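User: Just a sanity check before I run the rest of the batch. Below are the structure tokens for the first item. I only need the designed sequence back.
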């Protein structure tokens, strides 16, 4: 910095020094993208914070078997309900706002959180958020059945268990009536 001074003028100035306070670092940070994701184990509880205000936290889950991953939010600050969305390995959104995600054994799935659906409502977590991701198996043995070609046959009078998971899942069933009549 240079100051040109003239003999006949006085210059008054002051320098302002602001102390920078060190903040406690979240041990999971940085985990804002798929490449930095924190590993979560299926069935194990995990605690994290969304901090600072517009933070995004990404977690990597490697399913032990085929099925559906089920997100359970065990505890959350009163100020917000964390907004989950599922990503693929390239970071593209698979299912947004869903607490369920389809999973194949050994293929990584990524679960991301932000503090709210709308970014302008975002705020930091004053307390930890506790979650657990569980595995649901068996009810999805018929998947994929999203088209007429892959429709699941139903037997009239027999019980069929299925789930519409993940969000926006479409299941198509084929019914062959044993005789003429009304279903």
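Assistant: Here's the designed sequence for the first item:
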């Amino acid at each position: 910095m240079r100051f040109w001074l003239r003999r006949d003028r006085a210059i008054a100035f002051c320098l302002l020094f602001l102390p920078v306070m060190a903040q406690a670092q979240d041990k999971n940070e940085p985990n804002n993208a798929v490449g930095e994701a924190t590993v979560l184990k299926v069935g194990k509880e995990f605690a994290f914070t969304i901090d600072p205000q517009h933070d995004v936290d990404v977690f990597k889950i490697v399913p032990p078997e085929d099925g559906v991953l089920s997100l359970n939010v065990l505890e959350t600050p009163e100020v917000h309900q964390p907004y989950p969305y599922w990503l693929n390995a390239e970071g593209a959104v698979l299912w947004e706002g869903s607490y369920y995600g389809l999973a194949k054994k050994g293929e990584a799935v990524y679960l991301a959180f932000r503090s709210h659906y709308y970014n302008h409502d975002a705020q930091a977590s004053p307390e930890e958020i506790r979650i657990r991701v569980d595995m649901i198996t068996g009810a999805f043995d018929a998947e994929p059945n999203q088209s007429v070609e892959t429709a699941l046959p139903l037997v009239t009078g027999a019980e069929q268990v299925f789930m519409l998971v993940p969000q926006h899942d479409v299941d198509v069933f084929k019914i062959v009536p044993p005789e003429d009549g009304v279903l």
